[in-house]
Design goal:
Helix content is 77%, strand content 0%. The longest helix has 49 residues. The chain is globular. The N and C termini lie far apart (53 Å).
Length: 494
């Protein structure tokens, strides 16, 4: 690995810029609200792009293009499901959650919101939801660290152990120092880099393969079924892929962006920006994998690395078709996707430990400075546990991402969605929803029933549990009063 390697230099400049943003955010971080939610100061552009970037991990530039390259357009159902789910989340949850968290004790985290919204004096809701977050997100963080390590390993020929620390160090540094503002500002830069890479790359691949007609003929010659969206699919298979969209309602790192918006007025504009970004990125991702079929059919002599690991299709196209400096920028987009998601997950874990355990149960009267530093130490602690989990490259951590997504989607999704649209929901209903959703996912995954993605039954059963258990009791007058005040605030300002 040469120091003059343009890709290495590009990576170093990019990482240095992210850490610099972290130190800039440090100067604006004065209390726990600043560290966890940026003082609820995010404008529409930052809200939109940070929500998108925190959602789309390395899967966007590695997993999905690889799946399209191997199987054709039949793998694109998941992208359709994600777009629909994200839009509905922006439409029904974003603005309402922003005002509901403010009216319910100015809640900084999801467990904090559940506890205040349902007047849970026992602390049971807070503890159970914080534990769910810590378990699933530590696994999520480990998967992000593995993805970053794989990128450094394949790009620079590093050993896996060295790549593990190289990939994680910068993300830990700017999250540790700058908290939520650093994460959101860097997400905005990273989202810009990702969309640049995913618009430019398919255009250049298309030109390299002789234009649209030639490319489509080459793809058809390879296998006519590449164009068939129903190839090797079943009704349950399509529903399972589309079902990924249900996960959005319960992802703490995405919901935190809604809670941090400067006002409800910003949400509508943020929704339009975020959905445009998402559609262009997912369209570009599908195009990279699809056009890659034509390119590597025409150039079998360079197809070895992609045939060995189809998830390398974007990496190999960037290396083959671009000047090394431009390739370095494009490959930095993969690092951006990994870092943006990992940093959000680290911060959500830190928030749960600091706000929902340390402040609530150990140090109720802790100063703001103390809480910020505890938050920073928790980022470090979670990161070290995640690195330890990722240390063995044989660990199938990445395979657990769909499990974690389903876990959050089923345990939190119905509770969040119903809590912002139905004032009749009770504390016992919320508790039943979280437990039924999480247990259904675990049981369904274990027995692999019907071949159906576990988030779908989990979401349905949790929603039914919330409704029927809530109907057995009634919300308190205070809960109804706060709900009505928040709903009125939302309708006046949306």
């Amino acid at each position: 690995m040469s120091v003059s390697n343009p890709t290495l230099i590009t990576f170093v400049i990019y990482i240095a810029a992210m850490v610099l943003i972290g130190f800039m955010a440090y100067r604006s971080t004065n209390n726990l609200s600043d560290y966890i939610l940026g003082g609820r100061s995010l404008g529409s552009v930052v809200t939109a792009l940070s929500a998108g970037a925190s959602d789309m991990s390395g899967w966007l530039l590695m997993g999905l293009p690889g799946a399209i390259y191997m199987s054709g357009l039949s793998e694109s159902w998941i992208a359709i499901g994600l777009i629909v789910g994200a839009y509905l989340n922006w439409l029904f949850v974003a603005g309402r959650l922003r005002v509901q968290t403010e009216h319910n004790g100015d809640a900084l985290t999801l467990p904090d919101y559940f506890s205040s919204r349902f007047e849970d004096k026992s602390g049971l809701l807070r503890i159970i939801s914080a534990v769910v977050i810590l378990v699933f997100f530590t696994i999520y963080c480990a998967s992000g660290i593995v993805a970053g390590a794989r990128l450094f390993e394949s790009t620079f020929g590093m050993s896996y152990e060295t790549a593990l620390w190289a990939g994680a160090a910068a993300t830990i540094a700017y999250t540790f120092v700058g908290g939520f503002l650093a994460v959101s500002w860097t997400d905005t830069v990273q989202a810009t880099l990702m969309i640049f890479a995913l618009i430019l790359t398919p255009i250049i691949v298309l030109l390299a393969t002789g234009g649209v007609d030639t490319t489509f003929l080459a793809i058809e010659a390879k296998n006519p079924d590449n164009f068939n969206m129903l190839k090797n699919t079943t009704f349950i298979g399509i529903i399972s892929l589309m079902g990924w969209g249900l996960g959005y309602f319960g992802q703490p790192h995405i919901l935190a962006r809604f809670m941090a918006a400067d006002s409800v007025k910003s949400i509508a504009k943020a929704r339009r920006i975020s959905m445009t970004w998402m559609i262009l990125c997912l369209g570009g991702t599908v195009a990279v994998g699809f056009f890659g079929i034509a390119y590597f059919s025409a150039h079998p002599e360079v197809a070895g690395p992609v045939n060995e690991n189809h998830e390398r299709v974007f990496i190999e196209l960037a290396k083959l078709l671009f000047n090394p400096w431009i390739a370095g920028v494009l490959l930095s987009a993969i690092l951006a996707a990994v870092m943006s998601t990992l940093s959000c997950q680290l911060l959500v874990c830190s928030s749960a430990l600091t706000e929902d355990f340390y402040k609530t149960f150990l140090r109720k009267n802790a100063s703001q400075v103390e809480l910020v530093w505890v938050g920073r130490l928790m980022v470090l602690l979670v990161a070290l546990i995640a690195i330890a989990m990722a240390a063995n490259p044989e660990n199938r951590v990445l395979g657990l991402v769909s499990y974690a997504w389903a876990g959050f989607g089923a345990a939190f999704g119905p509770v969040v969605l119903i809590s912002v649209i139905w004032k009749g929901m009770t504390r016992n209903g919320a508790l039943a929803g979280i437990l039924v959703g999480a247990i259904t996912v675990i049981v369904w995954k274990h027995f692999e029933l019907l071949g159906l993605y576990e988030i779908i039954p989990g979401f349905i059963f949790a929603s039914l549990a919330i409704y029927f258990v809530s109907k057995m009791g009634a919300p308190t007058a205070g809960m109804v009063e706060r709900f009505d005040a928040a709903e009125k605030d939302y309708n006046l300002n949306k």
